[in-house]
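Hi R.,

Here's the chain you asked about this morning:
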Amino acid sequence: MFKKILIANRGEIACRVIRTARAMGIQTVAVYSDADDGAMHMRMADEAVHIGPAAAAESYLVIDKIIDACKKTGAEAVHPGYGFLSENQAFADALDAAGIVFIGPGKKAIASMGDKIASKKLAHAAGVNTVPGHMDLINDADHAVEISRQIGYPVMIKASAGGGGKGMRIAHNDEEAREGFQSAKNEAISSFGDDRIFIEKFVVDPRHIEIQVLADKHGTCLYLGERECSVQRRHQKVVEEAPSPFVDEALRKAMGEQAVALAREVEYHSAGTVEFIVGSDRNFYFLEMNTRLQVEHPVTELVTGIDLVEQMIRIAYGEKLALKQENIKLKGWAVESRLYAEDPYRGFLPSIGRLSRYKAPKGDNVRVDTGVSEGSEITMFYDPMIAKLVTYGETREAAIDEMRRALDAYEVSGISHNINFLNAVVSHPRFRAGNLTTGFIAEEYPDGFHGAPLSDETFEKLVAVATLVHLRYISRSHKDVVEKTAEEWVVSEGKERSVAVSVEDADKGIDVEIGDKTLEVRSKWKPGKRRIKAKVDGEEVIAQLEFYRGSIRLTHGGAVVELAVRRPHAARLAELMPIKVAPDMSKFLLCPMPGMVVAVNVKEGDEVKAGQPLAVVEAMKMENILRAEQDAVVAAVKAGAGDVLAVDDVILEFE
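And the predicted structure, written out as C-alpha cells:
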C-alpha cells in the first residue's frame, strides 16, 4: 500500500480524504494557498506545502506546483478530491509522466467522460438514451440563438468542462440564450480554464438521479445504488438522499446495469458517477459521467457501509475489489444537506467573513464533513460550502427527522448561512412526500426564501420556551421573580400572547398557561448558552437563541421569531414606541455581496430601463448580473471592472 499520498484540494473534501488515509495508516500531504494558510486541512495533514496566491488559477489549478509538492515530500500518489484538477486529463498525464499515481480513473475515461460533448457522443453511439441537443461547439451568441431555436425552447446552455452547477444557464427565449451563452462562457473560463459551450433540450419536470459505480483494474465493475439529487438551486445540488424515494428495484437495476456498461466501455477504474435525467414515466436519459468522487458520496457510504475513498486508494494501488454485485445491499436511508455561506433572505447571495461561532451537531446517526472550525475565514476565492451535514435512519422519515433535529442544533455565527432554508426544505410536506423534481425550489419558493412557516402550535411552544429563557435570565438578579406563582406576562411578536406562569421548581422548568392551554416546559438551559434544548409537553424543541434589541430571538425549524417578554404595563407602553424607517437607497445600485466587478455595462448619462443588466459581480466562482429595478438615468459610475467591493458598496448612482 502507498506510504504517502498528496491531496490536491482544500476544505472539507481534503479533510475527508485525510481521515480515511490516516485510518489506513497512510501519511498525507496537504497543499495550501495564501488564503488557506492555517486552514483545517493544512493542520490535519502530516505535511503541508504552500503552492501560491489565493486565486485558484495561481495555486490549486497549477499542475506544476502540485507535481513539485509531490517531489518535495515524496508523495507516491495524488487524490484530487472533486473540482479543481479532478477531471483534468493534462493533470493525470503530468502525474503519469512524473511517475506519480493518480487516484482516479485512466486516461481514456477522463478524456471521453470528462468532456461533456465527447461523453454524450460516446453514450449515444453505445446505444444509451441521451437528451436531444447540439453536441458540437457553439461559436458565439448568434450561433447559440440559432441552435436554441432549432432544438426548441427551453434549452440548457452548458460548459463542456463544467461541473458543480458552474457554467450552466436555462434559456426560454432568444434574449436569455444570448445572455446565458456569455455568462456560461465567462464562468467556464474562470472556473475550468475551458470556455467551450454546448446546448441541449431542457427536460421539464425532471428528476436528477445518479448511479454510483466502482470498478477495479481487474475487470470488476459494480453499481452501488442511486442517489436522489433533484433538490437543486441554479443547478447546484442542495439536498441529496440515498436511496431515491422514486426508484424501485427494477428501475435501479436498469439504470445500474446501463451505468456499468458505460463504465466498461471507457475502461473505467475507480469510483465514478453516471448521472441521469429521469422522467415521471420512469424513462431515463444519460446526462454525464463524473470521473471523480461526488460531493454527495457520504449518503451512499452510509446506506452501503462502503468507504469510497478507501476503495479509490486501493484500486489505484492495483488491488482487486473484494466486493461482488450480489453483496451490495442498501440498508436504511441517508440524507445530506449542503451548508453554504450564503444569505437565503437576500437571494442566496454569497457571504464571507470569520466564523465567530461554529459548533456542529453530534449523534450516532449524524455525520458532519467539514473543513472549517470556529475562527476559520470564509473567503471570496473558493466555493461557499461550509460543511455537509448527513443523517441516517432506518427509514426515510427517521433520516429526515434526524436531519431536522441536527439543523436546529447547528450553531453558526459571523456570516450568513442557509441552515434555515435547509430546514425549511426538509420539513416541507412535498419533500417529505418524496414528490421531487429539479424545479422543486423554484416552484415552492418562487419569490425567494423568507423563512419557514410556523404553525400556531409550534409558535406557542416557542412562546413558552422564550418565557422560560426570560425568567431564567432575570432570576440571576431577581431571585424572587421565579418564586411567585401565576405571574402575568405578555409575549409578543406580531401575534401577542398573554401568559400566566407557574413555577414548581425553577431549576427544572415552568408551566405556562396560554389561553386555555397549559404547557409544561422543562430544560437544563442556563443563561449564556446559545442553544436551548427543552421538552414542551414531552416533545423535544431545539432552538438557537440570542438576545436582540430587547427581544429573545429563537430559530427553530427554519423559522426565526423575536419574542419580547414583558409585564402587561410594559407591553402597553411598547406599543407607543415609534418605528424606525429605513433610508431610501433607490437612487443607488449597491453591491449585494462581497465580490469583484467583472463589468459595468453603462456610463454616466445613460438612460436605463427596468430589468436592464447594469453590472456583473463575481463571487465564489459564480457570476451575478445586477439589473435596474426601475427606469432611471445614470448620474455617476462609482466602480469599474476589477474592483473588489464589500456588501452595499456603491456601484452606480442615479439622478
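The chain is about 25% helix and 35% strand.

Let me know if you need anything else.
M.
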